[in-house]
Every structure is written in structure tokens, then in C-alpha cells.
Design brief:
The chain has 234 residues and is mostly helical. 66% of the residues lie in helices and 3% in strands. The protein is built from eleven helices and two strands; from the N terminus they run H-H-H-E-E-H-H-H-H-H-H-H-H. Helix 2 packs across helix 3, helix 5 runs parallel beside helix 10 and helix 6 packs antiparallel against helix 10. The chain is elongated, with a radius of gyration of 19 Å.
Length: 234
């Protein structure tokens, strides 16, 4: 996996430790987390490191701070999360999804405005291949990557692809985690992913930039939620 090519930060390590406690049930949904001092002692790190980890957990929707009361667990991720990636890497994965949300939403809008017939054919072909594979129970990150890269290429701006892939980062590494979570869920969840892709294709086909942006952003938001909230169905 791409994550193994660089060391994790102390904050990411604490993030992973807290996430592990949430998954184990030690920190259950709606329960109050120990205070910063207690977490600092528990994990053997400074309070600023704990504070940074908690801030990221809040951004990712896993905990919330209640004024005058403390920090509480909001949601529990998929039980299969530990089977597909190290919990230390989850924070980095979700940070990458933030980047994707910004870049791919704009790329989808530009693709709708600028795409050629060949671009549309490439996007549709990649989508059909991915949908067929999912229909046969195959969840191939490279096929998902091909779909998203075809949309980036349809912008006519080569820097969009470079913004998402480079410096040891490849889309399929991150998509592998998302697809593994999808595979472990219901068949409705897999169909939902295909439906999200279909909406993106149709928006680009109709040259509807507003719809294309919204469809892509919704797809990435749902991918994040499928990872962090096990109750999301599909």
C-alpha cells in the first residue's frame, strides 16, 4: 500500500489508537472520551499531539466536542476496517478524500463543459467495465481509477491528474480501501456505488456542469461516510 512508503505522524498514530478503542467498543458511540491529560498519559504523547488527533477525528465526523462537557464518540466505523488498512493510515486516507472532493468536483464540471466524444466514450467504457466487474463480485481498484482518470483527462488540463497522483500517491491505493469496505457490505451498497458513477456519466454526457460537480462531490462524500459510519446503508 502507498501508506507504507512514509512514516505516520504522532497525531496519526494517536488517531489510530483512539479509532481502535472505538472499534473495540471501549469508547462506545455516545460515550465521553477521557480528557486530554488522560489520553496524553495513556498514549505517552504530549497534549498538543492529542489535541491534533482529536481535531482530525472531529473533522472526520467520528467524535464531537460538547462545550463544557468534553468530547463524545459520534459514530463507529466498519468492523472490517482493520482488515483492509492500518488504523494509523485512516486519517491520511480521509485527508486525501478531502483533496479529491475539491479537485474531482471541479474536474467533473469542466469535463461536462469540455469533453469530446472520445472523452465521453472513454468515461462510459471505464464505467461499464467497472459496473460489470462489480456485478460479478470483482472490486478492482484499477478499474475505479480508470474511470476517475478518464474524467480528469476530459478536462483537457493535465495538471488535474498530476494533482491527485504523484509523490508516491496513486488513486487506486486509496480506492482499494473504499472498495474493500463496499465489498464487505450489502449488495445494495455496491449498487449504490454504481448508481453514483452512472449519475456522473449522465451529467457529463448532457454537458451539465452543475450536476456533474454535485454528483462527483456526493460520490466522494458517500465514500468517506461508508468508511466512518457502519450504520450507513447502503
Amino acid at each position: 500500500m502507498v501508506f507504507e512508503t512514509r512514516p505516520s505522524s504522532f497525531a496519526d498514530q494517536v488517531y489510530g489508537r483512539i479509532l481502535d478503542e472505538i472499534l473495540s467498543g471501549a469508547f462506545a458511540p455516545n460515550s465521553r472520551l477521557p480528557g486530554e491529560n488522560d489520553l496524553s498519559e495513556l498514549f505517552g504523547v504530549s497534549r498538543p499531539v492529542v489535541r491534533q488527533a482529536l481535531a482530525r477525528l472531529r473533522v472526520d465526523g467520528l467524535v464531537e466536542a460538547r462545550r463544557g462537557s468534553g468530547t463524545y464518540v459520534l459514530s463507529r466505523p466498519s468492523d472490517n476496517l482493520t482488515d483492509v488498512t492500518s488504523l494509523t493510515d485512516v486519517s491520511r486516507f480521509l485527508r486525501y478524500q478531502e483533496l479529491r472532493l475539491s479537485i474531482e468536483g471541479e474536474a467533473a464540471a469542466l469535463a461536462a463543459e469540455r469533453r469530446t466524444e472520445k472523452n465521453l466514450s472513454d468515461i462510459a467504457r471505464a464505467h461499464e467495465r467497472f459496473a460489470q466487474q462489480i456485478g460479478h463480485g470483482t472490486f478492482d481498484p484499477e478499474s475505479d481509477r480508470a474511470f476517475h482518470l478518464a474524467i480528469l483527462d476530459a478536462t483537457g488540463n493535465e495538471f488535474f491528474r498530476g494533482a491527485l497522483e504523484g509523490n508516491g500517491v496513486v488513486l487506486s491505493d486509496f480506492m482499494g480501501i473504499s472498495l474493500s469496505i463496499t465489498r464487505s457490505g450489502s449488495t445494495d451498497r455496491a449498487r449504490k456505488v454504481i448508481s453514483e458513477h452512472t449519475d456522473i456519466v449522465e451529467a457529463i454526457r448532457k454537458r451539465d456542469a452543475v450536476w456533474a460537480r454535485a454528483a462527483m462531490e456526493l460520490h466522494i462524500i458517500h465514500a468517506r461516510r461508508r468508511l466512518t459510519d457502519r450504520t450507513l446503508d447502503p
